[in-house]
Design brief:
Number of strands: 7
CATH topology: STM4215-like
Structural class: alpha+beta
CATH architecture: 2-Layer Sandwich
Helix content: 10-25%
Oligomer: single chain
Radius of gyration: 15 Å
Length: 128
């Protein structure tokens, strides 16, 4: 899945560690501070050529508003308007933010929740 390769890229970039503070699909109650990646509804694949478009939400939950924001800002700085890169079996033509970092309120334990959405336009890498 593309989302797994995105998590691996975030780890390579030093933003966090998959399984420690970067998680896929489910927003769990623990640990207190983390980045959670979820797929969002996306457009249908191009019917003429093999190009896909996937939106991914990057959720931050953190005891510190600033620390959570800074993690999402680091992701935005790395992935917004990034073009022509490979992630495992995928060739990403471009990734771009679809908005700014949104304040989504607090969870039941008063940890700040924030969200960043990024769109990826990609194709399976040649030879896969």
């Amino acid at each position: 899945m593309l989302i797994e390769k995105i998590a691996d890229l975030l780890q390579t970039l030093g933003i966090g560690t998959v399984g420690t503070n970067i998680f896929l699909m489910d927003i769990t109650t623990q640990p207190s501070n983390g980045i959670y990646l979820t797929n969002t509804p996306s457009t249908s694949p191009n019917q003429a050529i093999e190009i896909y478009e996937q939106s991914v939400d990057f959720w931050s939950r953190n005891d510190s508003v600033l620390a959570g924001y800074n993690k999402l800002k680091a992701i935005q700085d790395e992935l917004n308007k990034r073009s022509g890169y490979d992630m495992g079996d995928y060739r990403v033509y471009i990734s771009y933010s679809t908005g700014m970092i949104d304040d989504m309120g607090d969870d039941s334990q008063n940890r700040k929740i924030q969200k960043l959405s990024i769109n990826f336009i990609y194709t399976p890498a040649i030879g896969t």
